[in-house]
Structures are given as C-alpha cells and as structure tokens.
Design brief:
Shape: elongated
CATH superfamily of the largest domain: Intergrase catalytic core
Number of domains: 2
Strand content: 5-15%
Helix content: 40-55%
Strand order of the largest sheet: 1-2-5
Distance between the termini: 76 Å
Number of helices: 9
Order of helices and strands: HHEEEEEHHHHHHH
Structural class: mainly alpha
Number of strands: 5
CATH class of the largest domain: Mainly Alpha
C-alpha cells in the first residue's frame, strides 16, 4: 500500500503525510517538499516544526506513487495524494483503527496503548538509518529534528547488535594498549604495604 510505504520511507509525521498534494512531488528530482500538515481536519500551511522538509523519493516509492497517480481519479496538482473516495484528506484515526491496527494484529505484533500508532514508523526509520549507516546526524536529518538530543534520546533505539558492537570496539581498542604480560596477583600482593 503506497500510504504505508511512503510513511515508512519518508518518516513523515502522519499529519504531514496526509497533507501531501501531487504538487509536492518533484518527479524530475525525485523529491518531496513538505510544507504543510493536517491537524484535526484542518490544513495548516506549516509543518510541526515550521520548517520546509525535503525528502528523497527512492525508486520503490517513485514507482508506487507513479502507479497511484495513474489509477487515482484525483490527479491534479491541487489534489491530495492520499485521499478518501471523495478526494478529501484521509482521516488518520480511521486509517489507524481500520487498516494499521488490524494489519498489526494479523502480523501478531503486540501493540501497547499509544505506543504503536503511526509514529512507530518514525522511531523505526530513525533507528534503521542510524544502525545501517552508524550516523546519528543522518538519522536526525531524516527525521527533521532541529536538536540531536531529540533524535538520540527519544527516537533512535539501540539493539543487541549495537551493544555487541560497542563491547567489541572497546575490547579491540583496549587490547591494543594492554601489556602482553600482566603481573600475577601474588606479585602485586607481595609488594603491598602492611
């Protein structure tokens, strides 16, 4: 479904995603320009952070958006990309309750109250970018955060692979500076003052 693919690959907030119009797509440069959000049914001409976001459109998303526009009766630049049957913007609550949650249930994903809605796509995306690239700044850029502390302290999560990598990095570095032969405890104890 292009809706969830776009949500996952752009890490947009749900209000930013459902506010997208076809005019926000730069087909030649394969970029999405995000300048508005839908909040409680009202279109606001600014994002949550009041900055213009620019998102890359990877090939798989480019193809999905191309096909979606081809099939949609609402193709004008002024039309919403993700819309209801009447062309109006999607209702995120309806999509959450009728599409997202049932899909998560079918996949046996245990979801906590208020922890596994649309925002989980942002947390997951930020964590994937940081894990794969090792670059927290790139995760911050992808999520559009102005403060690194928001990205690192709230959005990007560590996993067992990170813990193992950290332990191995320490062991490798420390092993380079340790003497090859350490004194025994008997030798150390014999030289202690009484």
């Amino acid at each position: 479904m292009p809706f969830f693919l776009c949500l996952a690959l752009t890490t947009l907030r749900i209000g930013e995603l459902i506010a997208l119009h076809w005019s926000d797509v730069d087909w030649m440069r394969r970029k999405l320009t995000v300048t508005k959000t839908l909040w409680r049914g009202r279109l606001r001409h600014s994002t949550k952070t009041d900055v213009e976001l620019l998102k890359h459109i990877p090939e798989v998303l480019f193809e999905a958006l191309t096909e979606l526009r081809r099939r949609s009766p609402f193709k004008a630049d002024s039309d919403f990309i993700f819309c209801k049957a009447d062309g109006g913007p999607c209702d995120p609550d309806w999509v959450r309750e009728n599409v997202l949650y049932p899909a998560m249930d079918r996949a046996a994903i245990d979801r906590g109250k208020r922890t596994h809605g649309f925002h989980i796509f942002r947390h997951t995306g930020g964590s994937i970018v940081r894990t794969v690239t090792g670059d927290m700044k790139l995760a911050q850029l992808q999520l559009g955060h102005s403060r690194m502390s928001t990205t690192s302290g709230i959005y990007v999560h560590t996993n067992e692979q990170d813990i193992q990598r950290a332990g191995e990095a320490l062991a490798e570095t420390i092993a380079k500076v340790l003497p090859t032969k350490l004194p025994t405890n008997r030798h150390v104890l014999a030289h202690q003052p009484n």
